[in-house]
Amino acid sequence: MHLILTHEQADFDALAALYAASILDGGLPVLPRRMNRNARAFITLYGLEFGFIDPRDVPQGPIDNITLVDTQSLITLKGMGKDTKVRVYDHHPPRNIARNPKSKDIPTEWDVMTFELGATTTYFAEVLQERGEVLTPIQATLLLLGIYEDTGILTYSHTTARDVYAAAWLLGQGAELSSVTHYLNPPLSPDQREVYDQLVASIETLEINGHRVMLALGQAANPAEEISTLAHKLRDLFDPDALFVLVQTAEGIRFVARSTSDQIDVSAISAHFGGGGHNRAAAALV
Predict the structure, then answer these.
(1) What pTM was computed for the model?
(2) What are 164-185's pLDDT values in tens digits?
(3) What's the distance, CA 140 to chain centroid?
(4) What count of other Cβ atoms lies within 10 Å of the Cβ of residue 34?
(5) How far apart are CA 75 and CA 21, in angstroms?
(6) Distance between CA atoms of 72 and 112, rounded to whole angstroms?
(7) What is the number of other CB atoms lying within 10 angstroms of the CB of residue 81?
(8) Among residues 158, 174, 89, 164, which one has the least CA distance to residue 124?
(9) What is the distance between the alpha carbons of residues 284 and 276, in angstroms, rounded to a whole number?
(10) Dihedral (C-alpha) 70, 157, 144, 244: value to the nearest 10 degrees?
(11) Residue 251 carries which DSSP code?
(12) Which of 22, 62, 146, 234 fits a 20 to 30 Å CA distance from 228?
């Protein structure tokens, strides 16, 4: 059996890569147990289009192959064994213990492919295009959501020309921009609004080596509410050089960091707390 997996609290890039990998590799795309609210809303409406498998419905039996997308972390699953082969596709920097002392190096026997792209989905869109695959409009829309969300609609500094070309191809496949606008700009839920108000009220501004760094603290009763959306809104509102959001949840402290300066690598700071990400966007669970 061949399973395709991604990370928990999945965003559109994770889900789009999950689906695209299933087209290319023929494995079973297993949904994570937790997804961001906007991603879950999309899957609830259009999930049958993609053949996703609920984690509770994974067939029993030995797992021969696992494909990991948009992550380098694998949880142990029933059916895995010493002969299970693992392949990784990810646009995050390679995980290693030197960069993140709280993590383990990737096993040497894994087949790992990392790439410097704004989104993992971009790589799969390129391969689909090379193979001459034809997507339905809703399939193309999911992939476009994956690229747009992780690149800030092609505006983040880590966006590459390849991301732009891949997005153009998906538009040519019929991706619906109206759906992109709808799902990437959802209104805050009541729980998110409560946490957002806490963060705004608690903001502390520090001047560090000529940079304006902001800290925001809060508490969330519902750990399912993604904090990244709130961090984006705070960054856009206050425009600091760096923003660090720490929210206490039942699972621990959710740490979300954003940077608008090349001088501040928030992924290195996140790694100190066992997390990861990019130099401009990172997160951890403490």
Answers:
(1) 0.81
(2) 999 999 999 999 999 888 898 8
(3) 18
(4) 14
(5) 19
(6) 9
(7) 8
(8) 89
(9) 7
(10) 60
(11) T
(12) 22
